[in-house]
């Protein structure tokens, strides 16, 4: 299986290469990293200390899709819009991490633990959309709870790390944090990648706001779970906040059902679900936090759910706290799990 990683020098692309190096997929042949012309010729295997044989970086303008079996796009919506159909037309299965195709009816939006049936046959356009990072951890926590009864409404507040803004976002957070610690005037900080200075700050706006005041990220959190879970009428309200955390997204989730539910039943359903780490309500059990989750190679592959508790004013509602590594679970891992799922089908 020959794989092209488009956007290979970015944070998600590099995570894809690291996961491939770890053997997440069997029978990997060529690994072709693709990036901007300025990165052409770089040896990413050597740069990242990987054992996997990776070809030198090829420039976007020079890449030949012929012979590529899988193309993983992590280079942003404009590049995906332009080149993903080209790779698909050449016979590759495209897994796209951008927002370019997510809400198109003939493109499946896939989280393998939630809606694997969407890949029972090859997508008509040869493209599979990878959901937004914050959506993936949300639906993976919600899906087991459907065993308790019908979900009526979800209210989610997300606290999203700087790595969601790519390498530029990480560099900006590091530089501005260092400057402020060295005595720089906070009032002199310039807005950058995140619209406002992020160091020692919270920014309650991720992406542009629409005429109704909802940000682009909040729209994703409303629309994408509906499509993935096959619940087009599900009521979802979101507030998305950028926080001064290097890596790892966290979510406070309020889930309302049509009938009474108990935290104990919710914990049992969550604990029975592979790929989740669940924290009980005994103080000794603790709770998930982005720093320890993202520091561990094992934990960063899991969705972490804790603080499961009743809404004392509504017997039909629960609160959850959900944490995941947004580069791994929220992007690269899900993309490669889509490839693994497709590889088990006769059509690939």
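Q: What amino acid sequence fits the structure above?
A:
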């Amino acid at each position: 299986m020959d794989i092209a990683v488009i956007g290979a020098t970015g944070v998600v692309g590099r995570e894809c290469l690291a996961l491939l190096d770890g053997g997440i997929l069997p029978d990997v042949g060529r690994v072709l990293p693709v990036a901007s012309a300025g990165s052409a010729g770089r040896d990413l295997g050597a740069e990242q200390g990987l054992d996997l044989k990776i070809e030198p970086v090829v420039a976007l303008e020079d890449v030949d899709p012929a012979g590529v079996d899988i193309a993983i796009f992590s280079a942003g919506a404009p590049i995906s819009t332009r080149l993903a159909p080209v790779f698909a037309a050449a016979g590759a299965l495209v897994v796209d991490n951008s927002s370019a195709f997510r809400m198109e009816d003939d493109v499946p939006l896939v989280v393998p633990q939630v809606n694997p049936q969407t890949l029972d046959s090859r997508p008509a356009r040869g493209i599979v959309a990878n959901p937004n990072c914050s959506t993936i951890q949300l639906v993976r926590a919600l899906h087991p709870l459907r065993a308790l009864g019908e979900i009526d409404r979800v209210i989610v507040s997300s606290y999203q790390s700087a790595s969601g803004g790519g390498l530029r976002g990480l560099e900006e957070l590091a530089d501005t944090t260092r400057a402020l610690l060295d005595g720089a005037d906070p009032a002199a900080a310039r807005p950058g990648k995140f619209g406002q200075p992020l160091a020692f700050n919270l920014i309650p706006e991720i992406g542009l706001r629409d005429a109704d005041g909802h940000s682009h990220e909040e729209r994703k959190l409303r629309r994408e779970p509906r499509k993935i879970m096959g619940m087009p009428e599900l009521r979802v309200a979101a507030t998305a906040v950028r926080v001064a955390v290097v890596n790892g997204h966290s979510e406070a989730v309020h889930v309302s059902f049509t009938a009474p539910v108990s935290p104990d039943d919710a914990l049992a359903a969550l604990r029975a679900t592979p790929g989740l780490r669940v924290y009980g309500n005994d103080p000794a059990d603790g709770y998930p936090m982005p720093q320890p989750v993202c520091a561990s190679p094992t934990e960063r592959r899991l969705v972490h759910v804790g603080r499961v508790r009743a809404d004392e004013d509504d017997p039909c509602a629960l609160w959850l706290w959900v944490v995941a590594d947004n580069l791994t679970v929220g992007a690269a891992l899900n993309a490669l799990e889509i490839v693994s799922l497709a590889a088990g089908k006769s059509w690939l």
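Q: And what stands out in the fold?
A: The CA atoms of residues 69 and 92 lie 5 Å apart.
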